Amino acid sequence: MRRDVLVIGGGATGAGVARDLSLRGIDCILLEMGDYCHGASGGNHGLLHSGGRYVMKDRSSASECASENKVLRRIAPFCIEGTDGLFVSVPGDDPGFGDVFKGSCHAAGVPTAELSLKEALSLEPGLDPGITRCFEVEDGSIDPFALVQANVDQARENGATVLNHCRVTGIKVKDGRASDVEYVDERDGQRHEVSPEIIVNAAGSWAPTVAGLAGADLKMALDQGSMLVFDGRCCGRVVNRLRPPSNGDIAVPNHTSTILGTTSRSAPSYEGATVSAGDIDLLKKEAAVLLPGLRNARVVRAYCGVRPLLGGSGGREASRSFSVIRSEDVDNLLSVAGGKLTTYRLMAEKVSDQVCGMLGNSVNCRTHLEELSPGAVPVGGSIASTRLVRKYGAKASSISTSSPKVICSCEQVLHTEVEHVLQSPDVLTMADVMRRTRAGMGYCQGLDCSLAVLDIMVERRHVEAVPTFNDFLDERGRGQTMASGDQRRQEMLREHLLSGVYGLRRKG
Amino acid sequence: MSRNAVVVGMGASGLFSSYLLAKKGWKVTVVGRGTPASAMSTGCIKGQIVNDGCIEEILKMARSNGMPMTGPGTGATNLGTRFDCTLLPVHSMFSDRMPNSITVLGIGGHPSLRPRLTASMLSGWAPKVDAMTADVEISPEMTLAATFRDEALSDRLVEVMKDAAGESILLPPMFTLHDYMRMGELERRCGRRLMEAVTPLGIPGQRFLEMLLSSAVSSGAVVWSGRKVTSIRTNGDRAVQVEVKGGLDSRRLDMDALLLATGGPLVDGTLLSTEGISDPFNTFQTINCPGIGGGYAHIGQRLRDRSGHEMKNAFGAGDCLCSERRSFGNGLATALDDAWMTVQAMEAL
Q1: Is residue B113 domain-resident?
Q2: Which of A163, A183, A161, A159 is nearest to A172 (CA)?
Q3: Is residue B234 part of a domain?
Q4: With 70 as the cut, is the pLDDT of residue B293 above it?
Q5: Chain A residues touching residue B79 (CB < 8 angstroms)
């Protein structure tokens, strides 16, 4: 099959490129080896950056974040909560840092305003009453799964082919150009081939592997960050520590949880990244300095994301900016590296500009103008409708809310939502259902709702129950041996039931 | 003169030992609060029971409460997986007469059994397995016994079951202890063998606990539920008095023997750390072991005090007491077996 462009990788960047190119009328296909947001796009805070976090060390990233923040609020309001954010210092932090921060925000074009301590405490009563300074910025939280899905949907509406669960297994190179690309579709287990003019390698942490298939060399530093998910929203705004970027200095309220981040250290590979008990203690201790209530709050889950950073050794000093690299070995291979969820659209634009240049296409980018999932407005302001719109955008209107059957009491997921997502050929596994509906992300981590989802999948998809369920248990079990306190009790109950009563495979 | 025993904990080991002690002539006061792990269990005994005397007592108790148990044998869980047991209620026993065909019957209001899913997991057990959903709605709060006064509903259920393709029908648990015999009655009326799915977190576990409680009470134990032991007074190597609080009420009980059966890591009041379990009373020694599985140490069923001296009249019973490592799902057997042995040790006082 001949195509103009093949995009490899279905994270925010890849989906953004497919959307951008299709809006410019370019024929493209996207292949993702797992589900969308399989890598770093799914393993992050869900923070919509104001840019404040980078003003000190990485001014260009800060400016990019500030302008993209505005664009995303305009084009994808349905999956964004405009919570705003605070930068807060406590006794012991450098008292002069606030002024430097303020100046740097100004220079980078990141809107900020200093709040009186009284104002700050009344806006965010969970803050430690001893805080010394507080600045407000335009941070927010974003649902990366909904955002990426909306990009995929719009790309498809404009003629792109987007396939998840398709792993690229080989790239043939002839005369310094990639010619045929072979991939395996997990749906049928068959090998397929596509022959693109240009390949965009947006595989994130796996980009060096993809480049390697074409015999090209790509240097990338993998940097892992650990995050904790707390049950419930422990703050109304994004709360940042007002100091140079460091471990455990941000809490993001997102959906029904608060996500605490993050650490930074180099990772051997995406698969080799793990959360340590030390990471968990460190994050809790640091975050409790700002929000003392977190000390006793329940940690539902710990996970880590891997940042694919540009060159060098990674870490906090490495730029959070991005670049598009045209391979010296393979002329029609473009690789994207670095960047942030907040700037995904801008990255996609730069990549697409370059692709257009190579194809001789002169149509301008429209991704900052076209709304994603247009018409995604909650009906009547009901909580159910608001929740559905945040997850599914405009498609929420096709989900019936007339039946009150809830299959997940943690996340209040409706039976009809599961039925809805199972209509999509993208959804193969229980984890795919979870990423779309959030069933299984709550504090019970899928104890009850997983059986309901499995039941519906047996009915609709005729899947084999035990292997389907075991796959999901493996996915959810990752990292849960570290749970403590109430969550450990929950995990023990879960293991007792699954392994003791049902004799199913123990989590890994 | 009869001896006074205070038993702390109203789970399987606390109630079973209260029952045995009361039968042997002890004046027993059993104090407890919260939901014991056994109430969340399947009410089927999975692990091995070493003492034949203990098995005999359980069988006797089950018979006299109208829920005869049998075993060893295999049941089917509400997910359709196999569940091998040492002892289980007769209607959960699957393996004595393996059916040629099974219908998995879903009942509105009893979501623990999802007929399609369970049937798909069960396939392979019997040549023919199918799923069916009864067009009846029975509130899980109102057990079938209560609704059965509604003859129309009962008749409707029998009609539905007569239409089942399978020679055996797998049902979700709907019967409390008092009404367990109704399963036999339904079985006769519909001409099918009825099997209850082995189900955790529901009626079967509560029913098993109900059986232990009613046995303890009818053998003469005094039950103080909803109360908490707040302190234990010791005198040398003897525990002599406990303080019991319930709401504003607080009283002291003198005793000749104390039995702690406060259970494992899921119990209210027991502090859990990632390292192990610590003693809520801060009186007796605990095992500090990696992971979960520890509890109070006891040697020959007797507790030791903080300095390691054996207490003459303070005992422990329960599944967490006697092994540092146990596999999930075997707790009920161990709890009952350990309670039985503790009562033997107390008798020797």
Answers
A1: yes
A2: A183
A3: yes
A4: no
A5: 451, 502
